[in-house]
Design goal:
elongated, 5 helices, mainly alpha
Length: 115
């Protein structure tokens, strides 16, 4: 496999990852528009990488795709960490009524008397 083919494979995978998250039934055109917007490339450039229509991908476009992919992955990691924290908090709540009654401010009703 040549270097150009390896780069094309890498960038095709990154373009498809940039399309994440796609909605069920969403057309490829919508995904390509999202990729183009995120990467700062044209729809046609994103399409040509998606379908591997280029024999040699211009370096400035490859750099934009790689930068956008890194930003996208950092954002996904950040969202995942937030969801993990939320999941942990929800699953480790105390079911002991005394736990909450001691922590209410004066004048606030205990949680079991709320609403």
């Amino acid at each position: 496999m040549s270097t150009a083919e390896l780069v094309a494979d890498e960038l095709q995978a990154k373009v498809k990852r940039l399309a994440f998250p796609a909605q069920p039934g969403e057309p490829v055109k919508g995904c390509l528009n999202r990729v183009a917007r995120r990467a700062g490339v044209t729809h046609t450039e994103a399409k040509r990488i998606w379908y591997r229509e280029w024999r040699v991908i211009p370096a400035h476009i490859a750099d934009k795709i790689r930068d956008a992919w890194e930003r996208h992955e950092r954002q996904i990691d950040k969202e995942l960490a937030t969801e993990k924290t939320r999941y942990w908090a929800l699953n480790h709540c105390s079911t002991d009524p005394e736990f909450y009654s001691e922590r209410t401010r004066e004048g606030d009703p205990p949680p079991d008397q709320l609403g």
